[in-house]
Every structure is written in structure tokens, then in C-alpha cells.
Write a structure and sequence with these properties.
It comes from Actinopolyspora mortivallis. This is NAD-dependent dehydratase. The chain is an alpha/beta fold. It has 2 domains: about 190 residues, NAD(P)-binding Rossmann-like Domain (Rossmann fold, 3-Layer(aba) Sandwich), CATH 3.40.50; about 130 residues, Rossmann fold, CATH 3.40.50.720. Helix content is about 40%, strand content about 10%. The strands form 2 sheets. It has a 7-stranded parallel sheet with strand order 3-2-1-4-5-6-9, with helices on both faces. Strand 1, helix 1 and strand 2 form a beta-alpha-beta unit. Helix 1 packs across helix 7, helix 3 runs parallel beside helix 4 and helix 8 runs parallel beside helix 14. The longest helix is centred in the first third of the chain and has 22 residues. Bound molecules: NADP nicotinamide-adenine-dinucleotide phosphate. The site of NADP nicotinamide-adenine-dinucleotide phosphate has 30 residues, from helix 1 and strand 2.
């Protein structure tokens, strides 16, 4: 028997993570979803969206006070800032605004799920203890995830809801205009290599090519959100969630080259940010020739994020033992994931033909 009807408000519903969460919950008969973002949703969805600026308390009050029957809040909103310290305030303000207004408006609110990530473990700083476990010691703040988690922990009883935190790593899903999107970095880089007739080289550090690493299919995060909201033992706990398929780019990259039908060659470290800076005309030519959706080049991929991920010349692995012990069974073979997601991006006319499995 399905659980009683649940209604989830997904903050950041237009983002690379949020939209996959909405798309998953939309497949479930007993869930309703409402997305929150400033922009109109940029993907096919049947869920209503509320255009709201979560940084503006008055706007949140005005737009969310009418949502009186939410049972769940899924928090996947994110405000980028140029320094770790500057991330704290805006990302705390947005969370506080949505939690405090929604718990007042929706007396049946019962669960809040926070999306975190590897920064909890210091994976952005350098080699860290791997496989990372949820109870590993914190690094020296600032770290906005700590403030967000501590806030939920301290407010849950008073608010009458429980909380869980999910910790994915580099999310693979479709979105444009977002700061962190590995899938689009790989797909657009491959399309440009093909167009220019140059090999598809791994552009990162030699150590990053060989290190043990991981990604998280955004669809798995959607499944984990459903699981965390309905599994009683997930209340008050944080969980790593990845594909549960550790990999090394040295094995995956040649397969990607084969899938994309681009010649491959040895890795060569260079900055995608720097070398993509003059490729707007190349991308526009690809878009025009193949009748792709006209996403502007400066929104289609976040090159700095590619440089960051391909620059991690140390093991980057989270243990997923805890979430499995609590009963979550989601996971996917990473090569299969890339195949499925790139096939879909070609079908959706986001990437040119040829950027799909042969
Ligand atoms: N992407 C990854 O690889 C990755 C990996 C691990 C962890 N995470 C974590 O997952 C969380 C979500 O990240 P993401 O990459 O999915 O982010 P994202 O793609 O940039 O999406 C962020 C969302 O927040 C919304 N938003 C931002 N400011 C807002 C505001 N003032 N008012 C209303 N909505 C606002 C954006 O919508 P509009 O712009 O339309 O308003 C967008 O829907 C973050 O905590 C991130 O650190 C991400």
C-alpha cells in the first residue's frame, strides 16, 4: 500500500539536482510536488512552480504562505559565491526563510531533506580521509553545510518535523546555466573536439586520471529523497549517496571517447576555463548545423567545475555502507549512466548526434 499522500516543496527545483528530484517524485502516484526557483522551469514538468526569491523574506512570506498542505521540504537551492566564507550567509538565509515560512503555513510538514555534498568532508580542499564516512570529523569552518545541518538539527523538534541530509558527489544530470554540472562539461567538450578534429584528451592532472573517484547520477538522488522521506530510520541522519560504483577516469575516459566517436590520445593537463574561452563560435556552428536547442555557450557548461573535478589528483570516495545498512538499494554502473544520459541529451537536441553510444 502506498504511504498517505505526500506533498513535497522542492527548493531549487530548477537546478541540476532539484529537477531530477521533481522528475522522480512525479513518477510516484502518492506524491505531489511544487518547485521553487526564481526562473521559470527549464525542463518538462507537470509540477507547479512558484517564482520566489528565497533571499527575500517578504517575498517568501508572500509566495509560500498559501502552501498549507506541504508534508515535505526538499532543499536543493544553492547560491554560489566567490569564497568559502561568503557562501555561508546567503545559503543560510535561503534555508531559514523557506523552513520558517513553510512550517508556519503547513502544519502537516513532517520531513525536511537537505542536499549536501563532499565539502562536508573537505573534498574541495585536498586529500581527505577516504572512503569518507558520515561520522568523520568536520574540517575547520567556514562550511555552509555545517551551518545548514546544525540549523535543521536544532530546529526540528520545535518545528515538529524530522530531517535527513543526503551527501552526493559530482552530480550527473541535465541543466544549463548552473555552476556545477559535470555531464554538460564532458558532452560539450567532446562535441567541440569532434568539430575541431582533435582528440578527446583527459584535460586534468595525471594523478586525477588514475585516482579512485565517483559521481552521483541525479536520478539516484531523486530515489534517495523518496527513501529518506519514508524510511523512519533515516530521520535525524546524514547519508552519503553515490552511484556506489567507484571508478577511475583512466578506465572511463577511453570508453567515453569511443561512445562519442572521437579519437582519443594521451591525457594532457590544461585549463578548460582558459581553452574554452574562445570557443563560442565553434559551439554556435555546432548548434546551427545540427538544429540544437540554442543554449548560449556561456550557459551550456561550467568549465571551472570541470577544471576542479579533473584536478582532484587524490582519491575521492565516500562510503555508502550506511545508507545501504538503512535499506536504500539505489545505485548504477557509471559507464551505463553516462551512456543513458548522453543518449537522452542527443534525443533532446542538447548535444549533436555522434555524442551518443555507437
Ligand atoms: N551539482 C553538483 O555536482 C553537486 C554535487 C554535490 C552536491 N551538490 C549540492 O547540491 C545542492 C544543489 O546544487 P545544484 O548543483 O543542484 O545547484 P544548481 O543547479 O545551481 O541549482 C540551484 C537552484 O537554486 C535556485 N536558487 C538559487 N538562488 C535562489 C534564490 N535566491 N531564490 C530561489 N531559488 C534560488 C536556482 O533557481 P533559479 O536560478 O531559477 O532561481 C536553482 O534552481 C548544493 O548544496 C550543492 O552544493 C551539488
Amino acid at each position: 500500500m502506498p504511504d498517505t499522500t505526500r506533498k513535497a516543496v522542492v527548493a531549487g527545483g530548477n537546478g541540476v539536482t532539484g529537477r531530477a528530484i521533481i522528475q522522480h517524485l512525479e513518477t510516484l502516484p502518492c506524491w505531489e510536488t511544487v518547485g521553487l526557483s526564481r526562473r521559470e522551469p527549464e525542463f518538462g514538468t507537470n509540477s507547479p512552480f512558484v517564482a520566489v526569491d528565497l533571499l527575500d523574506r517578504h517575498d517568501v512570506e508572500e509566495k509560500l504562505s498559501g502552501i498549507t498542505d506541504a508534508t515535505d521540504l526538499v532543499y536543493a537551492a544553492y547560491q554560489p559565491r566567490p569564497s568559502w566564507a561568503e557562501l555561508v550567509e546567503p545559503n543560510m538565509v535561503m534555508l531559514r526563510n523557506v523552513v520558517e515560512i513553510l512550517e508556519k503555513a503547513s502544519p502537516k510538514l513532517r520531513h525536511v531533506t537537505l542536499i549536501q555534498g563532499g565539502k562536508v568532508y573537505g573534498s574541495h580542499l585536498g586529500p581527505y580521509r577516504t572512503p569518507a564516512r558520515e561520522d568523520d570529523s568536520r574540517h575547520l569552518p567556514p562550511e555552509f553545510y555545517y551551518d545548514q545541518e546544525d540549523y535543521l538539527r536544532s530546529r526540528a523538534d520545535e518545528g515538529g518535523w524530522t530531517w535527513s541530509a543526503l551527501r552526493p558527489d559530482a552530480i550527473a544530470g541535465f541543466a544549463v546555466g548552473t555552476p556545477m554540472n559535470l555531464l554538460m562539461v564532458i558532452g560539450v567538450y567532446a562535441a567541440i573536439c569532434r568539430e575541431l578534429g582533435v582528440p578527446f584528451r583527459f584535460p586534468g592532472k595525471p594523478g586525477a586520471y588514475r585516482a579512485l573517484t565517483q559521481v552521483t547520477d541525479a536520478r539516484i538522488v531523486g530515489q534517495a529523497v523518496e527513501w529518506a522521506a519514508t524510511e523512519p530510520s533515516a530521520a535525524g541522519e546524514a547519508f552519503n549517496v553515490t552511484n556506489s560504483d567507484p571508478m577511475r577516469w583512466e578506465h572511463v575516459w577511453p570508453q567515453l571517447a569511443e561512445h562519442f566517436r572521437v579519437p582519443r590520445a594521451d591525457p594532457l593537463p590544461f585549463s578548460l576555463t582558459e581553452f574554452m574561452a574562445d570557443k563560442t563560435a565553434v559551439w554556435n556552428r555546432i548548434v546551427e548545423r545540427h538544429g540544437l536547442r540554442p543554449y548560449p555557450f556561456d550557459r551550456v557548461a561550467s568549465w571551472w567545475f570541470g577544471d576542479f573535478v579533473f584536478g582532484m589528483d587524490y582519491d575521492n570516495i565516500f562510503s555508502t555502507a550506511k545508507i545501504r545498512q538503512h535499506g536504500f538499494t539505489g545505485g548504477i554502473d557509471t559507464e551505463r549512466m553516462f551512456t543513458e544520459l548522453f543518449t537522452e541529451l542527443v534525443k533532446q537536441r542538447v548535444l549533436p548526434p555522434g555524442i551518443e553510444p555507437s
